[in-house]
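Residues pack. Consider this:
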Amino acid sequence: MTIRLQSIFFVFLCGVAMACQPTSPTDGQSADESVSEVRSSPTTQALLLTQPVAFDASDANRVEGAYVSQEKLTVPSDLSPQNKWIMFEGPVLENDRVAFRYYADSRHRFDIYGKSVSDLVMDTVSWNYHDIMDWGSDILKVGNSLGLGSPAIYTGGEVYALSDCEVKTIEVVESGGDLSLIRTTFKGLKVEGEQFDLVQDWSIAPGDYYSTIELYLPSGEELPEGMQFATGIVSHLPEATFGQAGDYSYLMNWGKQSYHKEQLGMAIVADTDYAPKQVTDPLSHLMVFENAPQRVSYRLIAVWERDQSGTKDEAGFLNQVRIAAN
């Protein structure tokens, strides 16, 4: 966010004669402390907003009042797609460069909000976010793919999103300042006849065009035999490039693949220690982690032609990917 230091002045008009006096900090507060308060404006935020009434599957689009901020939420088992009970249909992480969300219902796919401004705006955005506005827009069509960076399990040659579980809980762990973090806990996650608990820690820091996902089994045990963590990029473009930058591997592409058919770069970056590899899938360009039996961490990166990066081509986006790999 652009930090504005405002000069504060008082002009006292007097009928006869009065001198202008300099302002002073609040009693007991130094000038340095005053400036510090101005500079402490948040540069990230985590949003989890719901209607002030319980979810009603028979009227999922009902809006009865202002959305209420939640710190922790157990997702209703009958939460439907395209509902308006949760603003944005799920939680949002935003910094001064980009914003991401995931659908809180059983889809559990990640989406992108491109931003053309540095201000934090997502708490002021309405349901017309698919339109290109002064602040930006929702810029990705996800469908049944993995969107950008959605966590998944790869087994038996098939990819499974984190869709079926007994209880799903979303918690805002941190919001504002140098880090915002949302934790999602899956109790009894079901994949191909197996059942286990899983935690997703999702965070964002200022100044980056990416957010970070960490997946782990809280028990300390490993994934069931034959299963691997995976993620991917929706295959709006037929090709994706798999490469390496230092100790990190990346999967990326660039082209006219945004919701509005504008230039958009998307990438996944992960440490080579996880042995990431590219795998073919009909809906998504997959990255499968062959050496992450209990835990994995990766970054999802999005750069849009209208954002503040000034990126105009694939070479420019590759530079952003290399920055994210540091």
